[in-house]
Specification:
The chain is mostly helical. It has three domains: 94 residues, 434 Repressor (Amino-terminal Domain), CATH 1.10.260; 67 residues; 88 residues, Arc Repressor Mutant, subunit A. A two-stranded antiparallel sheet has the order 1-2. Strand 1 and strand 2 form a beta hairpin. It is elongated.
């Protein structure tokens, strides 16, 4: 996958390319902007910064005052209506379907009613028209979808799992040229998946809760007729998953893929976009930590 996505010609004409953008530099995204809002805002900002067009010229094309456009691109002020985002998509040559999907989810997260969303899209009917993603993007999604769903299942229920994976593919579509420029497309894609999964995962004391995985494990391992044995086994399982959730992110992902999803180290290496030796090293470090919680002479994580 080495051929970058070539965007279609904008309805507003080709974007000017300028080696140095005059005027004040666009400020960063506001710290309070939630992850669902960032999921579409960051690709829009990336495309704007790559375009070379000035903020003033972009504002003229999308019919927004420079100050309002700056607020929109920093995520401050009122949540933007779809009409403005759709005009940005046309000018910046971004595919509207994945952008709309992410914008709509962020609108719901921001407390916008479905009626507001519907009114906001009335003047941009093309928002719901599906266009074809780059072939390389479609191939990657087809290759990893089942595995991504399996990973997300450890943290989320079915509906949230599916939404996280589809949001991942939408974000990748928007950022596909960036993904291809990255050192490893698989690693880039995995980072996007992890961001969406963790954004939807319940956290406690700064750690993700493996509630979905705990439920599945308890259902499998507590089928004895002895209530006391079932209770003891359930207690150990809950404690184990709580310990796993405290691992650093790379080790957590490796343990989930190897020991909850049942993938081989080679497959985990391919999904994560990291060397096989790194997968094995992360597993060793994780097991050493878990053995301090569950000593080898007890029924623990490595039994």
């Amino acid at each position: 996958m080495t051929t970058p996505f070539e965007p279609q010609a904008s309805a507003f004409g080709p974007l000017p390319r300028q080696p140095v953008r005059p005027g004040r530099k666009l400020g960063p995204i506001a710290p309070a902007v939630p992850s669902s809002h960032r999921s579409w805002l960051e690709p829009v900002r990336e495309r704007y910064l790559d375009s070379g067009i000035t903020l003033g010229a972009l504002g003229d094309r999308v019919h927004l005052a420079k100050s309002k456009l700056s607020e929109l691109l920093r995520g401050v002020g009122l949540y933007p209506r779809w009409e403005s985002i759709h005009r940005l998509a046309e000018v910046l040559q971004l595919p509207s379907w994945p952008l709309y999907r992410l914008w709509r989810q962020a609108a719901l997260d921001a407390g916008k009613a479905p009626e507001w969303i519907e009114r906001s899209t009335q003047k941009a009917a093309r928002a719901t028209v599906r266009t074809r993603p780059p072939l390389e993007h479609a191939a990657l999604c087809q290759l990893v979808e089942a595995d991504y769903r399996f990973y997300a299942q450890a943290f989320l229920g079915d509906q949230e799992r599916d939404a996280a994976v589809q949001d991942t593919f939408a974000t990748l579509w928007l950022r596909w040229d960036t993904a291809l420029r990255s050192p490893d497309t698989s690693a880039f894609a995995w980072s996007v998946l992890r961001t969406h999964v963790m954004a939807r995962t319940t956290h406690r004391d700064g750690r993700p809760e493996l509630e979905a995985a705990v439920f599945d494990a308890v259902a499998v391992h507590t089928q004895n007729t002895d209530p006391e044995a079932d209770t003891a086994r359930m207690t150990r399982i809950v404690a184990l998953f709580k310990a796993i959730s405290k691992l650093p992110a790379p080790q957590l992902d490796v343990m989930v893929l190897l020991h909850l999803c049942g993938f081989s180290p080679e497959k985990a290496s391919s999904l994560l976009g990291i060397p096989l030796a790194t997968v094995r090293a992360d597993e060793r470090r994780a097991v050493r930590y878990l053995e301090t919680v569950f000593p080898p002479d007890t029924e623990g994580p490595t039994s």
